[in-house]
Amino acid sequence: MKNKKIAVDKTYRLKSDRAPLSFMIPTKSSRSYSLLYFDEERNENRPLRYAKNQKSPFEDEQDGNLILEPIVFEDGLLYVPKNNPVLQEFLHYHPMNGNRFIEVDEAKDAEEEVEVLNLEVNALIEASKLSIEQIESLSRVLFGRDTSKISTSELKRDILIFAKSNPSDFLDAINDPTVKVQGTVQLFFDKGLLTFRRNKKEIWFSTPSNKTRMLVVPFNEDPLYLATSYLQSDEGIDSLKMLENLVEG
Questions:
Q1: How much is the pTM?
Q2: Last residue of a domain, which of 77, 104, 131?
């Protein structure tokens, strides 16, 4: 025995954040707007038309005795009671459904909000666990700052704000091993062990024993990412160790 579908009241809202005081959607095809639904089972486009005294929203299932009426969103909302299933079905098949308006699903909206809030909480928890060294490293990568010129409290605050505002990006960053190396490479620049020349078109070593060019930066490439990739490669790994020793020393 099939489960009987339970009729429920439904509410629809316009997707725009700036909903007009009233908005009327097309209820039948016209020269300026073809109100069609592609029926995959029939492999054909079926014209839609809303008439409150009909049992179907499809023209080919309606009789000639039509009572047409407009469909108007007031203050961005449209309430359709359960005793008007034809209008609910018409809105379901309407081409504007999902683009111009959507059905309000409070349970789904609440579930999505909970997911976002949980993500924020997790990001803030992880941010609060970071050591000052990790915070400095992330700040160099995320904000491109010389952390030696900023107080610890400012760094912690800015990381917490970033974690709350961009929880997904923050969690990705702290779990990305490349980010830690990027923070270290940024420190090399802050310490003057690596420098830019020719308007950031070249990266040079600037250590007591090495004043040679390390890389040429191609157009539109991220210099920090490029330097990090090079220093992690087989060709650059010895240079990375040498620079790390200079920082630690």
A1: 0.51
A2: 104
What lies within 8 Å, CB to CB, of 1 at 6+ separation is: none
Rounded to 5 degrees, φ, ψ at 28 are -160, 160
Which residues are bridge partners to 48 per DSSP?
58
* Rounded CA separation 122/116 (Å): 10
How confident is the model over 42-99, as pLDDT tens digits?
A: 999 999 999 999 999 999 999 988 999 999 999 999 999 999 999 999 999 999 999 9
How far is the CA of 171 from the CAs of 16, 29, 39, 101, 115, in angstroms? 30, 49, 44, 33, 14
Identify the pLDDT of residue 4.
Answer: 65
Please list the ranges in the chain whose pLDDT falls under 50: 1
Backbone angles phi, psi at 65, to 5 degrees: -95, 85
Phi-psi region of 200 (alpha: psi -120 to 50; beta: other; left: phi over 0): left
Cα 187 from chain centroid? 30
Of 201, 202, 207, the closest CA to residue 244 belongs to 207
The count of other CB atoms within 10 Å of the CB of residue 59 is 17
Cα-to-chain-centroid distance, residue 93: 28
Residues 241, 231: Cα–Cα separation, whole Å: 9
Number of domains in the chain: 2
Which range of residues forms the domain containing residue 90? 10-104
Distance, CA of 238 to CA of 240 (rounded, Å): 5
Structure tokens at 206: 């600037």
Whole-number Å distance between alpha carbons of 49 and 36: 9
DSSP letter at 56?
A: -
Establish if 123 belongs to a structural domain: no
55: its two tokens: 């049992």
